[in-house]
Design brief:
Shape: globular
Order of helices and strands: EHEHHEEHEEEHH
Strand order of the largest sheet: 2-3-4-6-7
Number of strands: 7
Distance between the termini: 62 Å
Amino acid sequence: MESLVKDFIEEVEAENYDVQNFGSSLAEIKKTGAVKALEPMVEMIVKAVSDNKLAQATLTLTDADIQVHLETSVVNLPLRYVNAMKKMLADDDTLPVSIYSIIESPDVNVSSLRIDKVASADDFVSHQGDMAKSVAAWLDKQLDQIKENQEKKAEESEADDAETKD
């Protein structure tokens, strides 16, 4: 799947792409695994790509300040950053559409945003069976990073509190 940048930008600006929201919790993911939470998102993206449409699937973790997205795009930026895309891309370029995994959390990193390419749109569809597992492995790594960053923050806060008391 490829897209002329001009057409891609127009579709994104008009919000002419499939959007679906899913809900789960960190506790549920720990209990049943990330693959189960991600499978419906993968199916939604595969259907959209098969229909030659752009898409965004969002998983909101109800017990944590975390959102996970799967998005189709021609560049590794969230679709909502369309203005930045317009500045970086030439209208007359034709670029491959890929699927990107995005996690948003104040504790994932300094920018509160991590984005990684999962696969080209075509590979995502042709390897659908592996995609939920692949994204789940990525998500587990990000959740571990978030937990580690939260623990560091708590330790630093405790050390600051101890210093203040002294």
